[in-house]
Amino acid sequence: MVTNPSDYVTSLAKAGASGFTFHIEVAGDGWKELLKDIKSAGMQAGVALRPATPIETVFPLLEGEEHVDMVLVMTVEPGFGGQKFMPEMMQKVNVLRKRFPWLNIEVDGGLGPSTIDEAAQAGANCIVAGSSIFGSQDPAGVISILRVKVEEAAKKGF
């Protein structure tokens, strides 16, 4: 989470980034210009929201002709690894999946083998996992579990 996401669009595009995700809480009313800049730079655009931010806040970013490609639902407060997964955030994922079935929905925070089913069944199809992978004796095994669970949920239609 950075305070001036527009300051980073050009440099990340030049570095080869394929996507750029910004926090709606920081972008505020400037999100339309930021979205245009991200797309003009050839990147996919994503928007993240913190646990306390209502899901309806991102609806305008999904309903126009120019919309974000992904919504990241934070399942912990941003900034610190190893936090506990907040299962109540899965309601946000569920709302997004039902209203925007085409959308990539990412979840970040506290994801691992013990929480992946809940996230995948709610409709998350992109998973960010740090501590559960890097703290594991078998990182490849954890990645495989996460991938299989998301793929299984997607086949069932979330």
From TrEMBL:
GO terms for molecular function: D-ribulose-phosphate 3-epimerase activity; metal ion binding. Its cofactor is Zn(2+); Fe(2+); Mn(2+). PROSITE patterns: RIBUL_P_3_EPIMER_2 (PS01086). Its EC number is 5.1.3.1. Keywords: Carbohydrate metabolism, Iron, Isomerase, Manganese, Metal-binding, Zinc. It comes from the Eukaryota. It catalyses: D-ribulose 5-phosphate = D-xylulose 5-phosphate. One of its GO terms (biological process) is carbohydrate metabolic process. Catalyzes the reversible epimerization of D-ribulose 5-phosphate to D-xylulose 5-phosphate. Belongs to the ribulose-phosphate 3-epimerase family. Homodimer. PANTHER family: RIBULOSE-5-PHOSPHATE-3-EPIMERASE. This is ribulose-phosphate 3-epimerase.
